[in-house]
Amino acid sequence: MKNVCLILGLVIMSLSGCSNNTSPKTISTPQSLQSLSITTNTGTNTNTVSNPSTEENNSQPNDSNQQTETTNSTEKTFATQQDFVDYMYEKVKALEDTVSLLDSNLTQVYSVAGTEAETAQLSIRHNLLKQTTNEMNAIESLKRPTEEVATLQDYVVKAYHYNVEYKTAEYEVFKAETLQDRQVLLDANAENEKLAQQYISLAWSEIDRLSETAYDRK
């Protein structure tokens, strides 16, 4: 009986010791693994990266295309030959008016020479010559409705060209310091003056030849 009790006591002590050693053990997880998130792959690829700058650039209008469209939409066109002749008539009249303004301006420059007002008059002269040059370039680039008006267009462009040359040099004649210098400049500019008047006359003759209507030049 003693032996049975002794064996039973040893078994109880053994079980008690096992229960004390079964305390839960904690496994530490490395920091890098804790921060790692695992996403389940659902079969949809979401790796597309959008480029904001590219999208913004693509949404912006093309300035060069807009400029081209604007230029094309404002380009002067002529439905008939008579429309072109009428337009040239207006341009030759405008040239004659500009020449008159330049003559008047030179008189004003002469009267205010050496004063502050001279600068203002010279600025007016410069602008008139610049506008006339721009007008000449615009006329030269016009598309003709027929080749019949090619000669007229050429005459008008040359009328503008030689009048600009003549009136530009005219001021240099005025500013010459000596009579001899002035005469040299006058002689050099005489050909420009002759051609300026000649091409205006030729332009008028060509307008009269081509026009279906009579113009009143008064």
TrEMBL record:
<keyword id="KW-0732">Signal</keyword>
<feature type="signal peptide">
    <location>
        <begin position="1"/>
        <end position="21"/>
    </location>
</feature>
<feature type="compositionally biased region" description="Polar residues">
    <location>
        <begin position="21"/>
        <end position="34"/>
    </location>
</feature>
<feature type="compositionally biased region" description="Low complexity">
    <location>
        <begin position="35"/>
        <end position="59"/>
    </location>
</feature>
<feature type="region of interest" description="Disordered">
    <location>
        <begin position="21"/>
        <end position="76"/>
    </location>
</feature>
<feature type="compositionally biased region" description="Polar residues">
    <location>
        <begin position="60"/>
        <end position="76"/>
    </location>
</feature>
<protein>
    <recommendedName>
        <fullName>Lipoprotein</fullName>
    </recommendedName>
</protein>
